Amino acid sequence: MTWETVIGLETHVELATKTKIFCSCTTEFGGAPNTHCCPVCMGMPGTLPVLNEKVVELAATAGLALNCSITPVSRFDRKNYFYPDLPKAYQISQLYLPIARDGAVDIGGGKTIRIHELHMEEDAGKLVHDPWLDQTMADYNRCGVPLIEIVTEPDFRSAEEVIAYLEKLKETLQYLGVSDCKMQEGSLRCDVNLSVRPAGSTEFGTRTEMKNLNSFKAISRAIVYEAKRQIERLEEGKRVIQETRRWDENKDATYAMRSKENAQDYRYFPDPDLPPVELSEAYLDHLKASLPELAEVKRARYQGDWGLPAYDAQMITSQKALADFFEALVDLGTDPKQGANWIMGEVLGQLSAHSIEAKDMALTPATLARLIALVKEGKLNRNTAVKVFEAVFETNGDVDAYVKEHGLEQVSDAGLVQSVVDQVLSANEKSVADFKAGKEKAFGFLVGQVMRQLKGQAAPAVVNQILRERLGTGG
Question: What PANTHER family does this protein's entry cite (predicted)?
C-alpha cells in the first residue's frame, strides 16, 4: 500500500522585545537562573499583568506580512495546566479570539501553506535536568517572555515542504525585525503534528505531536522517522495512539511522553485581568505602510535592476544585515557586480572564519567601498586588496592609512616596470626561448618573476603589456 504523510505545524517565535509580555523583566538570553523574573511573571498572589504594547505591534506586523486577516478585537485566555516550569499553573494565551487568522505562505513550486491562526502568548520556564545528582531544577527566567504561535493547516506532505516553509518563515520574521529566530537560543521552536493515511484517502489518520524541535535537521529527521514508525504500526495491524512524543537526537528516534491533550483539557476561559486588545484601522494602515521590503522582493530587484545572477541575489539576501550592507555599498558608488563579488567572496569568508553574522561585523560599507575604489583606480591590485581587507576586517581600520603604512600602493611607473622586465628577460633566456617556441606557460612564469621583484605591487595589465612588447608579440 502507498501511504501519504499529513503534517501541520505549530511554530513558537520569541518576539524581539526588550521586556516581557506582562512585566518589565528583561528578555535577554541567558543570565543566572531565576534572576530575570519578578512577582508578576512568577505568578505571585495579588500581582496584575500589564500588556507590553510592542508585543501587539510585532504580532500584528507578522500577521500582515503572512497575509493574515487581523482581528480588530482580540483577547487573552487562561490555559490551565500543572507543570513545574509554570509557576502560575496557567499560561496566558489566545484561543477564542487570536490576533490574526487565515494567512498563507507561498513556499514555491506552486505550493501554498495555509495559516490557521497566529496568536500571542507567554512562554513557560525551563526545567534543567542534572543526571549526576538525579535532580531536576526549575529556571523561571523564561517565564513571561513574549511569543507568537503560528498554527498552520495540515497542508504539508513531506519533510522538504516543512523545511521550505520554515526557511521562508524565518527569513520573513528576521526581515520584519519581529524576531532574531535563533533556534539555538529557543527563539524559534516547532511542534510537528503528523499522521499517515492511504494515498487517495480524504480521512485523516490519528496524529502524534512532536514537541519543541529546535533545528531544521532535527525536524526533518523526526518527520521521516515518525512517518515510518506509524506506517509500520498500521501495516502490522496495530493502531497509532494519539500522544505527545519527544525527539531523541542521540537515538535518532521519537519516544512517547504523554497522551495528547485536547483543548477542553486545558479548561480555557477569558483572562479576567486583561482587557480586550482593540486595533483601529488607522493603526493597522500605519503598520502596513511600515512593512519593509522583504527578501523575495529584494532578490527580484537585484536581478532586474542590477543584473545580479539569481545565486548571488539569494546569498546576499540570506541575512538582512548583509543585504543592507550591499545596498549601502551601491549607494556609495560601488558597481553592484563588484560589490556582490566582494561580499560573496571576502565578506562571507571572513564572517565564516570569525563565526559571526553580518549584523555583528565591525567593517562598514564605506571602508569596503574605499578599498574597491582603490582597485578600480589602479592603486591596488586585487590580491593586495584582499590582504588589506583581511587586515582591516575586524577593526574597520583605515584602508588608506594601512596601504601607506605598509607601502602597498601599486607601482604604475611604466619606466620602472620596463626596467624590471628587461632584468627578468635577461635572467631567464630559456623561458624566453620556450615562449617564442609556443609554450604559453613560459609567459606566465615571466609575469610571475616580474611581479615577484616588484613585490606584487605592479599593475598586472602594465606588466603583461610591456612583457609582450619586449617579446615582440605586441601590446
Answer: GLUTAMYL-TRNA GLN AMIDOTRANSFERASE SUBUNIT B MITOCHONDRIAL AND PROKARYOTIC PET112-RELATED, GLUTAMYL-TRNA(GLN) AMIDOTRANSFERASE SUBUNIT B, MITOCHONDRIAL
